[in-house]
Amino acid sequence: MKPVKYPLNVALLSAVMAVAGCATPPGTDYVAFRNHRPRSILVLPPLNKTTNVNAPYTDLSTITQPLAECGYYVFPVAVVDAYLKENGLPYPDEMHGVALDKIRSIIGADAVLYIMIEEWGQKYIAIQSMTVITAHAKLVDTATGQMLWQGKQEASQGSGGADPIAMLVSAAVQQIMSSMVDYTHQLSVLANNSMIYDSNKGFIAGPYSPPGTAGRCKP
């Protein structure tokens, strides 16, 4: 089944946000990824190490698009979430504990993407107000349990400037704006795109990519 593709609007968002992407540790290669070549990916609701209760499902809602555009079939995250909850697994930590052979035999996924959220939301660094997203992800083969790939989602938006007084004013304005507008969804889009499309350490183009596509995924 060919994944549905959606247009990206990264240019608009990147005009107001700073994104830093990094993924796998130096020296990690793609041998296992290329050898196993998964066609379908199950994305489980992320583990949440923050106090933001909306973080897991905001992140989950923004990871499907880049994976699908990268050429993989991604199981509908809302359907999978509802199915697991109906079968006695109401929380992400319980979902992450499901045996891989069960996932492969019941759901049919070739690989599972596990995500752990470490930072999500507003924080202060000195007198600078920042909205920050940091999460780690790993792709695991359901047949062998071997890790095929790992990456990092990282994006931030905040006040800045050289003048301390201006920075204080900017931080105060940012705090007021953040209370009215939730920037984390937009940041999550950028963080996931940055992770999947990283030219050095992103995903390999999947089996449903356009003919002639090879190497890393491209937005």
TrEMBL record:
| Highest taxon in the source lineage | Bacteria
| Keywords carried by this UniProt record | Signal
Among InterPro entries, the record links this protein to: GNA1162-like
One Pfam family matching this protein: GNA1162-like
Q: What is the lineage of its organism?
A: Bacteria, Pseudomonadati, Pseudomonadota, Gammaproteobacteria, Methylococcales
The region annotated as signal peptide is: 1-23
The entry's protein name is Lipoprotein
